[in-house]
Amino acid sequence: MLGPVLLAASRSAAIRRIVSAAPVTRPMVDRFVAGERLAESMAAVRSLTSRGLEVTLDHLGEDVTDRAEALRSRDAYLALTEALAAEGLAGRAEMSVKLSAFGQALPGGHDLALSHVTPVVEAAAAAGTTVTLDMEDHTTVDSTLAVLGELRTRFPQTGAVLQSYLFRTEDDCRALAGEGSRVRLVKGAYKEPGSVAYQDKRDVDRSYVRCLKILMAGEGYPMIGSHDPRMVAIAQDLAHRLGRKLDEYEFQMLYGIRVAEQERLVAEGHRMRVYVPYGTDWYGYFMRRLAERPANLTFFLRSLVGRR
């Protein structure tokens, strides 16, 4: 039952200060975050791609509160695009962006986020890579999908993320299952009310399977974002039954989680993409990782108590 508490804590400034100051935090963060600087993220990309893995990079930041921060997020991604092109890695690494980091929550946020993310998508296309729009809490879904629609008129390879714990997601999957569409399906990692989202894990899992069937039967490119062995096996079975080739879908997992499974899928010939976050604004991301995996939380709390 600590999961919802941790999700709420992920947006608490007071708890952020406590967690950030704890000596044990840094080693745990390093497990899930590639580093704070661009150079560290590029080192992670080189290491992963050398082992046959592909990458999507996330410059950490969300819930931006002023336009200057939104511009810094844009510029960080433009620098990332330049680095990928300079090192010849654009063909193996794409980028994931949260529109809240581009000003989505500010006054006029929809247009502001679109104006900030468009140069990033343009630069990515010029470099030979692409962008996927991460999905955040349910209040942002309509705006994010509207931005996606506008971007795809010029850059049809722009991807989207859908979360199976939302009631609406099956319909969104149907809308995005067309030719050329790239969709990462995840279970969801934000605290959502029962009016819009399934609260029981079994219901979330069932929804995930229903959504996965829609995407795999469609004409788009499904990206299976899950560490759950059952979902991986179901995706493989669906791909086999529907006649999908190995390059017509991919698996995605988080940096630092189930590394052996990532390498197993690569060895079997699957396309396996690792979600690599980096940057100084790691707190919200870190807390959501703890909420998702009780083992991570137990280890962190024991270490915290031991240090004290």
UniProtKB/TrEMBL annotation:
The keyword Nucleotide-binding applies. It comes from the Bacteria. Keywords: FAD, Flavoprotein, Nucleotide-binding, Oxidoreductase, Proline metabolism. It catalyses: L-proline + a quinone = (S)-1-pyrroline-5-carboxylate + a quinol + H(+). Residues 43-299 form the Proline dehydrogenase domain. Pathway: Amino-acid degradation; L-proline degradation into L-glutamate; L-glutamate from L-proline: step 1/2. Its EC number is 1.5.5.2. It is an enzyme of class 1 (oxidoreductase). Its cofactor is FAD. PANTHER family: PROLINE DEHYDROGENASE 1, MITOCHONDRIAL, PROLINE OXIDASE. This is proline dehydrogenase. It comes from Streptomyces hygroscopicus.
